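Moderator note: this is an archived Q&A kept for reference. The question asked for a predicted structure of one protein chain; the sequence and the answer are reproduced below.
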Amino acid sequence: MLTILVGSQTGNALNLAQGISGQLSAEGIDNDCFPMDEVDPETIHELQRLLIVTSTYGDGEAPDNASEWLSFLKFSELDLSHLEYAVLGLGDNYYPHFCQCAKDFDQYLGRQGARQLLERLDCDLYYEEQYPEWVEKLKQVL
């Protein structure tokens, strides 16, 4: 089972994550998709596979609904060696902290021992053109 958690301020990341969820389901890959603020960060101990789809807000910050998860991963001492993960970030490369929230999630998960399923993808404004090939690779590893 793949759990998809979404950090979204304006809805773009949520729409993208729901689309990816549908694509994976169509391929027979079981998954659940939730905004991050609907899931207690402690549940990470129960997850086996995790996909984080997140935008970056403001000056490189997490979207409001992802800040609790990001803080939990940053400031906790966890053993996440049981967890496989992937991260997809949305941003605008005009800003100096392009996709910083995705980079932070990737760093904190790796630091806690989680294993990367796939290299992080940092998407610019035209993410519709950038993510399909990455999702195909994700399907292959799942």
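Archived answer notes: The CA atoms of residues 117 and 141 lie 7 Å apart.
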